[in-house]
Amino acid sequence: MDISKIEDIYKEYNIHKAIIVCNKDDIDDYHKALVDKDHSIIRSEHVHLLNDIENRVLLIDIESAIESFKHPTSLVFEWITIVIYINTAYRVDALNKIPTIIL
Fold first, then answer.
1. Parallel, antiparallel, or unpaired: how do β-strands 41-43 and 18-22 relate?
2. Chosen CATH of 4-102 out of 1.20.140.10, 3.40.50.300, 3.40.50.150, 1.10.443.10
3. Residues paired with residue 100 on neighbouring β-strands, in sequence order
């Protein structure tokens, strides 16, 4: 899986925490590619861990993102610097106030 565009975003922006949203079919490939490049990644089943200082990137599929953020969450949205959507037809309403990049 090519993650060069994601790496370019990290070089260009000062990112504290990020949410990367992709299709369910691609999530395992993106996870492997990002981990192989030493990115600190947590998956959708651990959304709450994004609040921890050492966890910087949440990788989540679009269906899980819509469901996870439909209801109030303990996630501190103010700490999230950017949301990156990769090949998704939908956006998550709860994330609309966070700067967004669409790949």
1. unpaired
2. 3.40.50.300
3. 83
Which letter does DSSP use for residue 84 in this model?
A: E
Helix intervals (H) in 1-103: 4-12, 27-36, 62-68
CB atoms within 10 A of CB 77: 15
Question: Rounded CA gap, 80 and 1, in Å?
Answer: 24
Q: Which two three-digit tokens encode residue 60?
A: 């989540």
- The dihedrals phi and psi of 56, each to the nearest 5 degrees, come to -115, -20
35: Cβ–Cβ under 8 A, 6 or more apart, which residues? 41
d(CA 91, CA 33): 23
**Is the whole model's pTM more than 0.85, yes or no?**
yes
Per residue in 53-98, pLDDT (tens digit) is 788 899 999 999 998 888 777 788 888 999 999 999 889 998 999 9
